[in-house]
Amino acid sequence: MKLAVFDFDSTLMDGETIEFLAQEAGCLEKVREITSKAMNGELDFFESLQKRVSLLKGLSVSRVNEICANLPIMEGAEDAVRGLKAKGYKVICFSGGFRNATVPLAEKLGLDAEFSNILHSKDGILTGFAGGEMMFGESKGLMLEKLQKILGISPRDTLVTGDGANDLSMFKFADIRTAFCAKPVLEKEANIIIKEKNLAKLLEYI
Question: Which fold has domain 2-205?
């Protein structure tokens, strides 16, 4: 068995979930600025996530789910997942975003599992708070290490793919480290660099 772990936003999905939601909430520019700093490693991920989520307060959960159900899949993502599974990989998604988005897309792509955060709501309205498995800069690495122990998979048989600074923690536990249309901070630590916006290109290296 082998393990392939993908980031979600701007990797499996073409864009940033929170920016699609921010557009609906009328705070896109503020959120975009914070996201950029976080993905470049200029801002602590936990702090950036809390700031961005607070700006979504007041959105209805039903509208959030509607937006998340229609997020664009990254070009080549379906081919990449299918191709990796044919090569014996379990394919999983780690996201610093939200289950509202990762669950429906995981079903569409046929992923084996997804790990992400939860937007807190009350009476069907977002409260501006979030919690979950992927709240911190080191969360993805910690979860990957746990999965490897549970499944008995070594770093040699582990592939990770991401685009931003919060994906760095996964690189410590994987011999195959892919930077996909990524920020310079991630490219420096990668041994596969894909600059074309087509995730199927990954299969050329595996």
Answer: Rossmann fold (3.40.50)
